[in-house]
Amino acid sequence: MTDARRALPAVHRLLAEAERAGLTDETPHQLVVKVIREALDDARRAGYESPPDGWLPDIRHRLRAKHALSLIPLVNATGVVLHTNLGRAPLAQAAREAAFRVGGYTTLEYDLGAGERGSRQHHVRKILREVTGAEDALVVTNAAAATVLALNTLAEGGETIVSRGELVEIGGAFRIPAILEKSGTVLVEVGTTNRTRVRDYTGAISPNTRCTLKVHRSNFTLSGFVSEASLEELVAAMQPRGVPVVNDVGSGLLVDLSEFGLQGEPLVRDCVAAGAVVVCSGDKLLGGPQAGLILGREELVSRMGRNPLARALRPGKTVLAALEATLSLYRDRGTALREIPTLAMLTVDPNTLTQRAEALASSIEGASTEPGTSTVGGGAFPHAVLPTTLVAVPADHPDRFLARLRQGDPPVIARADEGRVLMDPRTVSEAEMGSIVRVVGEALC
User: Fold this and answer.
1) Reported pTM
2) I need a surface site. Which of 21, 278, 318, 341 has the fewest CB within 10 A?
3) CA dihedral over 293, 169, 254, 226, signed as positive or negative
4) Which residue, among 316, 327, 305, 325, has the nearest Cα to 109 in the 3D structure?
C-alpha cells in the first residue's frame, strides 16, 4: 500500500522550483522556505492533496499575501458619507498632499526663526483660532481623548454635573459615564431624561463641583414633552459661580449647511462664542483627519496643554499637516464646500447624482437606476434625508455578489436590498467610476 505522505514533494524540491521561477529574487530565502512549509502543512491537513492550481502558483499566491498590506483604499458605494468602518471623512486633496510632504524630517517641533525647540501645536493653533474664534486651541488624537483630557484637567478628584438626557453612548459602545470615570471625576446626574432646566444644574453645585459637561446628542433626537438648558443659559449661570462648562459638540461643524436641508448640528464657532470649552472631532463634519479639537479660553486650554496626559494623547506630524491643510480651506466658504470631500458630498446637487447614476448604470450589464436616499453617518444629522439616485444590479445571491465586490481591486463596498445590489454615486468620486465598472463586470462574470 502506497503511503500518501510520499506523494508530497520535498521542501528542497519546491524551493528549487521557486528559485527557477524567480520567486526568491525579491523575497528573502527564509520567507520562501517558511511559505513552502506552510503549503505542505496545509496539504497534509487536507488529506495530502496537492493545491488545485499546482504548487508554484500556490506558493506565489501565499507570498503575495505575506507582502500585502491590510490597510488599503476602497470604493465606498454605500451612500453613507461619514462611514465609521470605512475611515469616516475622506481627506481633501490638499490634506493628502500635506500629509505626504511631511513623511521625512519636518519642522514638527522646531522653530526655524529661533533655531530651537518649538511646539507641534503651533502649526494648527493659529488657524484654529481664526476659523473658530477661540482664544486658544489644542489638538489630540480624537474627540474622546479631548473629552478625557478636558475633564481630567478641570475636574479630577471633584464632581462634574451632567444632564441625564445627555448620558449618551457613542460609537464602539463607549458611554459618557465611563469616560467621566476614566477622567477621574465623579458624575453628578441632574434633571430627567426628557427635561433638564438651568436650576437643576445650579441646584447640584456643591463644594466639590469642578465642571459642567453638556453633550450634544448627535446620533439621536428627543421629541415630544422635552426641554433642556441651552448652552448660553448654562454658561451664563455657571461662569459667575466659577464652574467651567465643557461642551462636547461631536462632529465639529464649521459651516452652516441649513440651506441644503441639514439642520440640528451646532456650529463650533457659536459654541465657542457662548463661552464654553468646546471639544469636537476632526474626521467627521469638519472633513479632516482623525483628531480631537479643544477650543476655548486661553487660561483653561493652556492648563490642558500642561497636563501630562496631553503628551500621551498628542497627534503625529501627518495628522497635524492634514489638519492644517483642511482648516486652511475654511478661510473661504465656497472653497470649503467644493474642496472638502465630506462637504462636497453632502451638498451635491441631486441632478448631478442622477447623471452620475445613469452614466454608471449604462456601463453595467443589467443595471438600472431608481430614486433613493443617502445617509450622513458618523452620528451626525441622524434624521437627515438626502435624496439620491441609486444604481441597482440584479443578483440571485446578493450576499455572494457583495463578497465578490469586496474581493475586487480596489474593493467595492455596496449594499443589498430585495435581490439587488445597490450603489450610491454620492460617495463615489469621478475617478472611481471606472473602477466600479471594472470590478462589477468581473463580479458578474
Assistant:
1) 0.88
2) 21
3) negative
4) 316
